[in-house]
Amino acid sequence: MRDVTIYTTDTCPYCIKAKKYLSEKGIEYNEKNVHKDFQAKQELLAMGYRTVPVIVINKREIVGFDKQKIDRALG
């Protein structure tokens, strides 16, 4: 089973692309919008990131929308 979380904002075009890509592959994910969710923002900052999207697949962190890295992490 895959554990997939994506940290997003409302205005990030790469977040939209990443969510669409995961959906097209039939991958369920948990979205954490850092503009709307203070706890999600704190989590993102604690990981050392100030940008989105950050996609976490089975504890592997991928910064940005990178199809190759996503596919490798998904196996």
Automatic annotation (TrEMBL):
Recorded hits in SUPFAM superfamilies, A to Z, give: Thioredoxin-like
Q: Does the keyword Disulfide bond apply?
A: yes
Q: Which residues form the GST N-terminal domain?
A: 2-75
In the record, biological process GO terms are: cell redox homeostasis
| Key words of the record | Disulfide bond, Redox-active center
Give one GO molecular function term: electron transfer activity
> Where does the signal peptide begin and end?
none
| Record has DNA repair as a keyword | no
Cross-referenced PANTHER family: GLUTAREDOXIN (PTHR34386), GLUTAREDOXIN-LIKE PROTEIN NRDH (PTHR34386:SF1)
This chain's protein is named Glutaredoxin-like protein, YruB-family
The organism of origin for this protein: Sporanaerobacter acetigenes DSM 13106
